[in-house]
Design goal:
single chain, mainly alpha, Amino acid/polyamine transporter I, two-stranded antiparallel sheet, 2 strands, about 65% helix, globular
Amino acid sequence: MPNRQDYDAQSSKHSEQSFFRFNRVAKVPLGVDDDDSYLDMSDETAQLKPRQQHWANKMQFVLACIGYSVGLGNVWRFPYMCYKSGGGVFLVPYCIILFICSIPLLFMELSVGQYTGRGPIGALGQLCPLFKGAGLASVVVSFLMSTYYSVIIGYSIYYFFTSFKTEMPWIDCNNRWNTPDCWVPQRKGINASAPDTSRTPSEEFFENKVLQISGGLEYPGMMRWELFACLICAWLMVYFATWKSIKSSAKVRYFTATFPFVLIIILMVRAVTLDGAAEGLRFFFRPKWSELKNANVWINAASQNFNSLGITFGSMISFASYNKYNNNILRDTVAVSAVNMITSLLVGIFAFSTLGNLALEQNTNVRDVIGDGPGMIFVVYPQAMAKMPYAQLWAVMFFFMLLCLGLNSQFAIVEVVVTSIQDGFPRWIKRHLGYHEIVVLFVCVISCLFGMPNIIQGGIYYFQLMDHYAASVTIMFLAFCQMIAIAWFYGTGRLSKNVKQMTGKAPSFYLRSCWLVLGPCLLFAIWVLSLINYHEPTYHNGRYTYPDWAYGIGWMFASFSLICIPGYAVINFLRSSGDTFWERIRNTLRPNIYECKICGEHHCEHDYPEQEQFMLAQEMATVYKPTNPHLLNLGQKCGYNAMQASPSHAEAGGPCGQ
């Protein structure tokens, strides 16, 4: 009989070994990136379990959300949409939609993403399988946005390097691309008056030099190879910042999400001191109430809300899916919403103060001083830089800031697409692409190719057409379907219970009422208004009208996402079990949330696939066979006992091992 002290030491040693072996076999992470099992696990189970990868700390998640909020959605899109919609009147529907739809919907998306641990397709597919197509539609919209958001980054790179020239080319009219309409008061004399068709140097630089704009979409022109090189650089930066998923992009955001704030505040302070700034601020804050009946104002306000907060695009669901289970959702919602509102206000003051100054110099009103196209910021902001002391330094810093903001937005968009592909097709990804880096490369290359039409000479018309139909017209319908699927069919009661399980506190009456009644009713009313009183988009304050076939292309972009909702509903209906029509409908409306077989919870480590249990039992039976007769003399039954296993037992042989 072995020495008792040695025996206890061996038992303790092998008990510890068995513990680590159990964790390796039974509790192996289900794929950090692709959420697929290392073993023969079914796709259905793999898609239901929450992901195991999390943010390294709370700050990374907050910066990801704020970085998206303070990204191009605010600095580029907000002044563009506000100016396009008539100035101050835009703020009225913007604030209404913000408090009734956007903030409650943001809280809902963060809750759903954090609870399910999945991207938009997987999350909505679990809560309400019939509306799984709404999640797919949001991914399609995000993909379409990625194709032209990268163009904004390309423009920023172009302007960034141009700012290093000894004399910045947008400050005077002495360049080969300038026309007789170019007007700079400082160079013409104080008593001179601007011509009726005057244009700023920055506007002519953007349209005649950067874009070399053609006469319309029907005149596509040649590829702008300088912009092509900038676009490639933009996608290279996006790829290398996202190829390791949130591990790499989160580190980049520590700088890209904080640096822009300082610069925006400095530029705003300078802008409000310019001559004519008061007129621009009046245009920004004083609404023309008669414009509220214009459906496009409400459509633009809704799309801007959703763009700036990242809701209905799947970004916030994807970000929240990497959260810890007990993360405080309400605090995150308030923080992101507050930062979004403050940033929009600061950027609006900065942009419209500068527009007031331009209007004074060009002897015109704020409404007509420049075109209302998507390149507005590359006309207004360079002109503001020229009024700063040490203009060249400020221009370099500003366009570097714009580059950071563009990368923030693009990180979120690419993360949505990649996460959704991995959630939807884990086995196919593992079999054909293998690594997360390859998936990101695949998405970046395809998006870059689809973005090529934006950088031809007629590309700016294509850009605006895609932005209007892909990210404005369809977004309200997607938000409506998402609210209906979660609040009505999954139920506010279930969602409130999930939130209470995670945070210890149920959502307030304000949030529940907005989910259930106010939000869907407002979105439906805007949708109906847009159908009754709809105006097709134009370019440059109505001076260019798109041909009819161009509107057909626009609605084709819109249909790419809209068709996903009824299409996926039909597919899920046909796949569902049931003998009658209503049985199938009920089955497709029933939640399909993963629950542990032991404790019944969604987030736990108890339950693992039967294949893994079988492998665990086989390995334990092979390695730890207590065949030493001494174990039988101690009154133990044949089998494995982790506390008393030792190598000598397995080698000795005996009744249990025979």
